[in-house]
Amino acid sequence: MINKLSAKLSEGIGLRLNSSDNEKEIYAYSIEILISLLINFIILSITAYILKKQVELIVFIVFFSSLRSFAGGYHAKTHIECITLSFCLFVISAISSTYFIEYGKTILFLGIIFSIIMVFVFAPTESENKPLSKKKFKKFRLISRILVIALSLTAICLYLTKETMGHVYITAAVAMSFESISLLKH
User: Fold this and answer.
1) 3-class secondary-structure state, position 139
2) Residue 72 φ/ψ region, left for φ over 0, alpha for ψ in the -120 to 50 degree band, beta for the rest
3) Rounded Cα–Cα distance for residues 119 and 152 (Å)
């Protein structure tokens, strides 16, 4: 469905701009990704609203997505799989800040240690569709390592402010851990 819609939209854009077939393919792919991200975000936002976990959604997006942008990780084969996986990972991350409070410090500590080790050993992972040059690989490796340290320190700060922020530090640690697990995609 998303493929057909993006193909139709790119064809219309291509006709208006007098684009080549190659350019139309680029438009279609870009539109496809944009629609998929939008659907994913809408579903996660509605879920966060229903569960009263809007802050956790922001924390999940920051900790999971920012690290994923540079570290890479598992890519779903279909949009449905991607949306379903994102939904499940968000729900688990979000509700963990409610149901695992008594293990919060342990989850934080283990999540940080695990994520740092995984990123330092495996990141960045390459996508089949988007291999990295040596220069980009080195750049993404450095950025991934800096990010995992910065996010770990941020998670610790969230822990230290739990009286005002609640237990979202657990969501942060779980989200980072999920992204780190996805580095084992092979």
Assistant:
1) helix
2) left
3) 12
HSE-CB at 29 with a 13 A cutoff on CA atoms is: 7
Backbone conformation region of residue 125, classed left if phi is above 0, alpha if psi is from -120 to 50, else beta: beta
Query: pLDDT by residue (tens digit) across 143-161?
Result: 999 999 999 999 999 999 9
The predicted model gives 19-33 an average pLDDT of 87
Domain boundaries, the chain: 1-51, 53-184
Give per-residue pLDDT as tens, 61-119: 999 999 999 999 998 899 999 999 999 999 999 999 999 999 999 999 999 999 999 99
Note the pTM of the prediction, 2 decimals: 0.90
> What separation in angstroms does the CA of 126 have from each of 133, 136, 149, 186?
10, 11, 21, 11
161, two tokens: 């402010």
Quick one: CA torsion of 131, 137, 139, 145, rounded to 10 degrees? 110
Give the confidence band of 14 by pLDDT, cuts at 50, 70, 90.
confident
Integer Cα distance of 186 and 182 in angstroms: 9
